[in-house]
Design a protein that fits this description.
With about 250 residues, the chain is α/β, with parallel strands linked by helices. The protein has an eight-stranded mixed beta sheet, with helices on both faces. Helix 2 packs parallel to helix 8. The two termini are about 30 Å apart. This is Esterase family protein.
């Protein structure tokens, strides 16, 4: 049974205006940690597929547990919602809405969050997180805005050939640190782009990242391309970048 303390969560729904997105705005949801105080400053985890991270990943409940029971420094979570019909267009680097979405994150979402909430304004306090294509777009955002982001959580990242080619072209990724996992049963996943071996895909991406100087915390585990698998590894992902208070 889940400890009732973990379920007392403060989640604010908000809207960010945008000149880069065709709709002119994007819905976000913001988790504020226990004891949130506007006079302090907090690290922030920026999640693609925001609604799914909260509903299926249970990231707010996990965050409460880490803060309340493990002494992890309190942190904010910003979930960026996505229209499932536009997801590939926004998240895939060859998608028609990709450039606009990446610019929205780097040039609109970050300034908005850091002006409205008590968010720490340094690259070491910003973490990008995503599952599947959300993991790959997090990587692309990080390399597009290297002064803003150094840390990426990729859960079964969909590093299709176009993403790997972009990584290959990068000169130096030594400032980048990634938490990467993939499920050993993800060897024939049917995506909207065909059937792919996600294990081979992530192994190849890790090799490219290693060659470019990035730090990768890489793991292969029993699991499939589903939230039930990813949810199990969210605590470890967060612990990688968020540490106990001194």
């Amino acid at each position: 049974m889940t400890d009732p303390r973990y379920l007392k969560r403060t989640i604010v729904k908000d809207v960010v205006s945008s000149r880069f997105l065709p709709e002119g705005f994007r819905d976000i949801r913001v988790y504020l940690p226990p004891g949130y105080n506007e006079l302090l400053s907090y690290p922030v985890v920026y999640c693609q597929d925001g609604e799914q991270f909260f509903n299926f990943g249970r990231i707010a409940t996990i965050a409460n547990q880490l803060v309340l029971d493990e002494g992890i420094e309190p942190f904010i979570i910003v979930g960026v919602d996505v229209d499932i019909k536009m997801r590939t267009a926004e998240y895939a680097p060859d998608g028609g809405r990709h450039a606009g979405y990446v610019a929205f994150i780097g040039e609109e979402l970050i300034p908005y969050v850091e002006s409205k909430y008590a968010a720490r304004r340094e690259a070491g306090a910003r973490i990008l997180a995503g599952d599947s294509l959300g993991g790959s777009v997090s990587f692309h955002i990080a390399i597009t805005y290297p002064d803003l982001f150094h840390q990426v959580i990729s859960l079964s990242g969909a590093f299709y050939p176009v993403s790997r080619a972009i990584a290959e072209q990068a000169e130096d990724l030594s400032r980048l640190e990634l938490f990467m996992i993939v499920g050993l049963q993800e060897t024939a996943f049917k995506s909207d782009r065909g059937v792919f071996d996600f294990v081979a895909m992530n192994r190849e991406m890790k090799a490219i990242l290693d060659a470019k100087g990035a730090v990768s915390h890489y793991g292969e585990h029993d699991g499939d391309h589903v939230w039930g698998f990813w949810q199990q590894h969210i605590p470890a992902a967060l612990r990688t970048f968020l540490h106990p208070e001194a």
